[in-house]
Amino acid sequence: MYLPQTPSFRLDGRKALVTGATSGIGLGCAVALAELGAEVWLAARSQSRVEETAAQFTAKGWHANALVMDVSDVEQTRANIAASGPFDILVNSAGLARHSAAADTTPEDFDAVMALNLRGSYFLCQAVACGLLDAGKPGSIINISSQMAHVGGLDRAVYCASKHAVEGYTKAMAIEFGANQIRFNTICPTFVRTPLTQSTFDNPERAQWIAEKIKLGRVAEVEDIMGAVQFLACDASAMVTGTSLLVDGGWTAD
Fold first, then answer.
1. Helix or strand holding residue 201 (H, E)
2. Residue 192 gets which letter from DSSP?
3. Most buried among 2, 176, 192, 208, by the most CB within 10 A?
4. SS3 call for 88
5. Domain annotation covers residue 7
6. Which residues are catalytic?
7. Got the DSSP string for 31-87?
8. How many whole angstroms separate alpha carbon 55 and alpha carbon 75?
9. Phi and psi dihedrals of 90, rounded to 5?
10. Does the residue 209 lie in any domain?
């Protein structure tokens, strides 16, 4: 009798680029990939922070490199990918939120959010995918999206718009690059406890809203995202593309 074998979760010999890699979800994703043996390129805007983070990885015995990069600068991003790629894995975690009532949205806030969350992330995915095409390699491209890409939210019209758009181009690119075994997926977390989100939890009205919506009765921690990124990066998810992995505690279940 033939007994099937689970595909490997190991990422030895694979090069992974993680943006927004020095804090929060991005840092957690970078650690998750390094734990499975990937050579991780840590990308962020601050040279001191990426170098410090890379040094901590190296001290753990992981393979890590520091890359100073502003994803909203498309030409800089393209140059970095051309010089350091091809990357077998991309975790596109850099993002920006400027929350306000829709009636109070300014063009400046709208443009800043879209420049990073949509325009920057789009062309980053394009650059990594085209690098894989040129090298004749398969790959896994993972966009860190949000549960807000599937619902609406208080004071989050611009953020929701940017993340809904990410879901759209992720599906379209999955179709276009699928024949080349380059996969595109999103991870959609609920509210994750990080230094950047603490102000939301400190607002009693927002904290109550969150508590009522998350069916598991708690907010997410960075560790809750790490297994999801490991799965989508490795061969165990070889038939998964063009979809969203919702790590939302049941927020979108109703």
1. helix 198-201
2. B
3. 192
4. coil
5. no
6. 159, 163
7. HHHHHTT-EEEEEES-HHHHHHHHHHHHHTT-EEEEEE--TT-HHHHHHHHHHH---
8. 27
9. -125, 130
10. no
The predicted pLDDT at position 70 comes to 96
In a domain, 24, yes or no: yes
What residue numbers bound the domain in which 235 lies?
Answer: 15-193+221-247
Residue 207 covered by a domain = no
φ, ψ at 17 (rounded to 5°): -105, 130
Contact (CB, 8 A) for 99 and 153? no
CATH of the domain at 93: 3.40.50.720
Q: Hey, what are 50's tokens?
A: 């990426």
CB contact set of 101 (below 8 Å; sequence gap of 6+): 155
Residues 170 and 129: beta-carbon distance below 8 Å = no
What confidence tens digit (pLDDT) does each residue in 11-26 have? 999 999 999 999 999 9
pTM of the shown model: 0.95
User: What pLDDT shows up at residue 25?
Assistant: 96
> Is 54 within 8 Å of 66 (Cβ atoms)?
yes
Closest of 7, 96, 94 to residue 43, by C-alpha: 94
Residues of the chain scoring pLDDT < 50:
none
Strand order, beta sheet including 39-44: 63-68, 39-44, 15-19, 89-92, 139-144, 182-189, 243-247
